[in-house]
Write a structure and sequence with these properties.
Layout (H helix, E strand, L loop, with lengths): L2 H4 L3 H7 L4 E6 L2 E13 L27 E6 L3 E7 L8 E11 L1 H8 L12 H8 L16 E4 L9 E4 L13 E4 L21
Antiparallel strand pairs: 1-2, 1-6, 2-5, 2-8, 3-4, 4-5, 7-8
EC number: 3.2.2.-
Family: Belongs to the DNA glycosylase MPG family.
Pfam family, one: Pur_DNA_glyco
Amino acid sequence: MNVALLAHPAEEVAPRLLGSVLSCKTSEGTVSIAITETEAYSGTADPASHAYRGRTPRNAVMFGRAGHLYVYRSHGLHWCANVVTGTDGAASAVLVRAGRVIEGEDLARSRRGERVETSRLARGPGNFCRALGITAEHNGADLLACAPVVLSEGESVPAALIKVGPRVGVSRAHDWLHRFYLAGDPTVSAYRLSPRARPSAGA
C-alpha cells in the first residue's frame, strides 16, 4: 500500500480500502483479514468524528500522517481500528467495520469463540479488532512499515459490488452516506440506527 493512496479525504479512501488486507502479528501468530466494510469520518467537519471538537491526547493520531493506525475503546468494551487518511494536521480517518479472515483462522477463532460462524469472526469493528489481536498498544502504528500491524493491497473490487449507505450506530450525522461495503457479503455487519440519532445536514 502506498501512502499516496491514503492521502485523500476519508470518504474517498474508504471505498478504496475494500478488498485491502490488514494483518497483525503477535506472539501467538499472524491473522490477516480482507476488509469488506468501512466508514469514513471527516475530522473537524464531521459531527460524528472524534476530532470534531479539535485535537486531544486521545485523538492526536488522527491529526498525523496518513497510513497510521488510530485505535480507540468503544463503550468501554471493544477496541476499534481506524486507518488515518488525508494530510498531516487535518484529522481524517476510516473506521474498519468488518472483514473476511484469510490467514490465521484458527487463531482468530480462539479469540472469538469456537462456536462463532466463520463469516462472523470479524463482523463488526469490535470483533474485527479482537480477531486480529489489535489493542491500545497498536495505536499510532505505521501501517505502511514493517510494523506488527500492516495494511496491504488485496484483490481489486469491482465498483459494481460496492454499496453505500448511512453510518451505523452514531447519533450525529448518522445519515451521511459514508459507509461502504461489499454487496451480499456475509461478513458485512447489519445496519443499526442509533436510538439517539437525529436528522442532520451533511454529505
